[in-house]
Write a structure and sequence with these properties.
The protein has about 200 residues and is α+β, with helices and mostly antiparallel strands. It contains 8 helices and 4 strands.
Length: about 200
């Protein structure tokens, strides 16, 4: 039985689609839109939270995109998955870090740059978000100073989870030149063929 992923590519489900594309695991993608589809009795039986993404794999039901990605990586094994307890802890560390330290400000920057999701285009709001991001970006830039990937000598689910959030910096057209290590690393992450396939899904709607 293949995995079923509920969500749309233009949402946090994109990072789960990216992980699935990286692994080559067979999966079915059920396009599910927030509010339009997630309040139905059928969907609430899958996820009572009424949110996307949701992964169903036989008897396993997972929600929260970064936790889903941890499951996908562990199921697939290989280079994407943590190799030991230190890497497992690093996955939790960096996943929690990017969600608590960077995600909200990146979303604000993106929304106010593009004038979407009920926000008006507002350069002052973008500048405020950029100011908030300066501290966590310095932390990540320093971490990447002498290595290509966050953990080990390979692209892993740790890089994917963090890069999936930081990809919004590109969408928001933020200048990352003050953080050259992030820029180099993010370009490498987003240049992967699996991410390119997810971008095509986003364009297709």
């Amino acid at each position: 039985m293949s995995i079923t992923l509920y969500g749309i590519a233009a949402s946090r489900a994109s990072r789960c689609l990216w992980a699935l594309e990286e692994t080559g695991l067979p999966y079915q993608h059920v396009k599910t839109v927030m509010r339009k589809d997630t309040g139905t009795p059928e969907f609430l039986k899958v996820n009572p939270n009424g949110r996307i993404p949701v992964l169903v794999d036989g008897e396993v039901v997972m929600f929260e995109s970064l936790a889903i990605n941890s499951y996908i990586a562990s199921k697939a094994g290989g280079d994407l998955a943590p190799k030991n307890s230190v890497e497992s802890a690093a996955l939790m560390q960096w996943s929690l870090w990017v969600m608590t330290e960077a995600e909200k400000a990146l979303l604000d920057a993106m929304f106010h740059t593009l004038g979407i999701m009920g926000r008006e285009k507002d350069v002052d709001k973008v500048a405020e978000a950029v100011s908030i991001l300066e501290r966590p970006f310095k932390v990540l830039n320093l971490e990447l100073e002498k290595k290509n990937w966050l953990v080990g000598d390979r692209f892993s689910i740790i890089d994917l989870n963090v890069a999936s959030v930081l990809s919004w910096a590109k969408t928001a057209r933020l200048d990352l030149s003050a953080f050259p290590n992030i820029e180099r690393w993010l370009t490498a992450c987003l240049g992967r063929p699996a991410f390119g396939r997810v971008r095509e899904m986003q364009k297709a709607g």
